[in-house]
Amino acid sequence: MTSRFESLDPATGDVVGTHPVDGQAEVDRAVGAAFEAATWWSALGFHERQEHLDRWKGVLARRLGQLAALMHDETGKPYADAQLEAGLAIDHLGWAAKHAQKVLGRRRVSPGLLMANHAAYVEYQPLGVVGVIGPWNYPAFTPMGSIAYALAAGNAVVFKPSEFTPGVGRWLADSFAEAVPGHPVLQVVTGFGETGAALCRSGVNKVAFTGSTATGKRVMAACAESLTPVVIEAGGKDVLVVDEDADLDAAADAAVWGAMSNAGQTCTGVERVYVHERVHDEFVAGVLARAREVRAEPGGQIGPITMPSQLDVIRDHIDDATQRGGQALLGGPDAVGEAYVQPTVLVDVPEDSRAVTDETFGPTVTIAKVASMDEAVSRANASRYALGATVFSRRRGVELARRIRSGMASVNSVISFAAIPSLPFGGVGDSGFGRIHGPDGLREFANPKSVAVQRFKAPLTLTTFTRTAKDDSLFAQLITMLHGRTPTLPKR
Ligand code: NDP
Known about the structure:
There is one protein chain. The chain contains 16 helices and 20 strands. By secondary structure, it is an alpha/beta fold. The strands form five sheets. A seven-stranded mixed sheet has the order 12-13-14-11-10-16-17, sandwiched between helices. Strands 7-6-5-8-9-19 form a six-stranded mixed sheet, with helices on both faces. A three-stranded antiparallel sheet has the order 3-4-20, with no helix packed on it. Strand 8 (206-210), helix 8 (213-224) and strand 9 form a beta-alpha-beta unit. The longest helix is centred in the first third of the chain and has 26 residues, at 79-104. The protein is globular. The N and C termini lie far apart (70 Å). NADPH dihydro-nicotinamide-adenine-dinucleotide phosphate binds at residues 133-138, 142, 160, 162-163, 192-193, 196-197, 200, 210-212, 215, 218-219, 233-236, 267, 307, 359, 387, 427, 432.
């Protein structure tokens, strides 16, 4: 008999639900059914799929409260934050469904002069079945970044939620089945890491993984055995940089929300701040004034740490920073309790300490003074992670955002890129590769298919053994004529 496990409320320890520990056999069965469903789903075409996805979107929106309550119970995050997260996931679903045809549908492209006797077409066909492995910190928004886009691209999905949030995963699949009955286009398998590993070995056509860098490497290694492609959305150590001309109130507000919201358990959360020396003290005062108002407690602005083992990591980072000369202007070693961590603001932390180099995933932030924005960019770019970034500057925001090594950046606001469905989401370096969201997120779950159609016989046929020496000479003349001169480009 399949064993079961419990998901717990991290604030109280109460049991929220029990779920099966699915092994390889159960995962294989789900993937087999998904392949059948994928045949039906992909044959529907974009318009009909959009109708189905819009129906699901309606169910999600009407039951937003129910979904948010379950997210609150399983993660401990405040109900309003859960509602915000679920609402943004619904917005992405709507965008993916609406734009799939435009991005992926068949379109004609120019065949070029050499092949002018052809018509050329490109379209993006579904992969088949996509395995989605998700984390617990944003149990709806994060996996939906893969699920919604993979479904809209015409794939069936088998989703393995985190062992801490299996109920949210189950709820999403059940609500889909109500909106789209009869075909298991979205299924959930539950369990621990081994269930995720089984999904990697199940013959799915792609695995979309979101989680830590270490697990991402294991997922990639397992998928390599069957040459299964992967998208890896991994951890981050995002910076916020503050220029001397920045709106300091707005920057301080963004730093506190970016670092502390969701108790700091955000892949694109602000973990490091580099601030121009001319405005450093005023900025820090603004951060402290705001962070002092944030309490981690039942009913507070931030909830508990969802994964108990993360408490040790957060404690270790704070201890390491303070033992090596760092100062806690707020919080500190005593801020780490049994379930809750109080906001912690660290300054004078050595750049090679773990609070600066590793993902902390708690409501903590390091703030360092820099002499120039060049120094801020170079310190920002010293990280092996490169997920998101935030820049506060009146004059140079976009310039600095472009120079920071990251997949995404927000200027004069924080994490806003994640809420804009047309923007691709993902990182580089240890933060992973591949993209969810936006047109790139749709293409991530599709195979480009190129078709060239000969419309009439060309005077010069190149792909035949009957080609003559005269044809070869004509071809050489043509290439010289077309590409032999270096053209003068118009001035921009
Ligand atoms: P983990 O890497 O621990 O787990 C992620 C998922 O992988 C879980 O479902 C987990 O299952 C599963 N898993 C564990 N071992 C294996 C395995 N060997 N093979 C396949 N799957 C496996 O991450 P967390 O859940 O702790 O999530 C937090 C991390 O996610 C942070 O590093 C955060 O930065 C990152 N993240 C990245 C985002 C991005 O978009 N870049 C967004 C959100 C979070 P189980 O839980 O059952 O062990």
